[in-house]
Design a protein that fits this description.
alpha+beta; Beta-Lactamase; four-stranded antiparallel β-sheet; 7 helices; 20% strand; globular
Length: 174
């Protein structure tokens, strides 16, 4: 499994502040996060509203299109379990927090959408923008393997450097 790059993470954190000035920066910021944590792609989802025009990395564009075309956004198993955990103050949710290996093998979303497209694992990083819960869904390929165990997560670490975010903003990444 790829280790986390502190330098890459710091660069990505710097771009997160820029997203408040222009949402078009999100794909670039997500690319940096993916490089930092060794992930294959990412997409940004609102907790209760999902539309096909969501920001995503180029590397996860095909999967995102299939997600909406196949109406998986209406029956997203991971969101059904992750969003309530994020609402209850969890900052990061990974596959292992919401289902075991047997449940994953039986789940339609994994077997019909993710695995055929080369992805299997995720970490959803929750954050609030005003009154809306958002989740940065960081996707890992089958070969990249699952996200690290919860004890290895970086939770709510303050952003440093040139980050321009609202007061109290924090980077919270795996």
């Amino acid at each position: 499994m790829h280790g986390m790059s502190a330098d890459e993470l710091e660069k990505a954190c710097g771009l997160l502040g820029d997203t408040t000035l222009g949402p078009a920066v999100w794909p670039q910021a997500m690319d940096g996060i993916c490089r930092a944590v060794g992930a294959g792609g990412a997409m940004l989802l609102q907790g209760d509203v999902r539309t096909p025009d969501i920001p995503r990395t180029t590397s996860f564009d095909e999967q995102t299109q299939c997600y909406f075309r196949g109406d998986w956004h209406m029956r997203d198993t991971r969101a059904n379990y992750a969003v309530p955990l994020l609402l209850r103050e969890a900052s990061v949710v990974i596959d292992q927090d919401i289902m075991n290996a047997e449940q994953m093998r039986a789940d339609a979303m994994y077997n019909e959408l993710l695995i055929p497209l080369g992805f299997q694992w995720f970490a959803r990083v929750g954050f609030w923008a005003e009154s809306a819960l958002w989740g940065l869904s960081i996707q890992r390929t089958i070969t990249q393997g699952p996200s690290r165990a919860p004890r290895n997560r970086v939770r709510a670490a303050p952003c440093t450097g040139s980050t321009r975010m609202t007061t109290g903003a924090r980077c919270s990444l795996i």
